[in-house]
Amino acid sequence: MTKEYIEKRNNAYFVKDSRVSLDSVVYAFLNGVSPESIAQSFPLLTLEQIYGTITYYLANQAEIDRYLQEGELLFQQQREASLKKNKFIIEKINNASQVTG
User: Fold this and answer.
1) Where do the H-state alpha helices sit in 1-101?
2) pTM for this one?
3) For 95, which of 12, 26, 42, 78 is 20 to 30 Å away at the CA?
4) Cβ pair 53, 46 in contact under 8 A
5) What is the pLDDT of residues 82-91, one digit of tens each?
């Protein structure tokens, strides 16, 4: 009998039956955080779910790495668009902090 630990919803991966993203667990794992410490950071997940998520990542590493890279690229694009859109406000904040700093 196999158990599924990951589900895809709205073009994103999540730990099954939770709101915890696969990204959250995988990035912690890639940063050297132990499964036990990851479980402490996400108390709604069981240690079994954490290990299941890591196993899913390792079994589908090329696909998930592409997914993570796409997410990082989208984040950078949105960040740059936001900085451009709010350039005037950001300059105002920076100028104000220079005066008070």
Assistant:
1) 22-30, 35-41, 47-59, 61-85, 87-100
2) 0.76
3) 78
4) no
5) 877 877 777 7
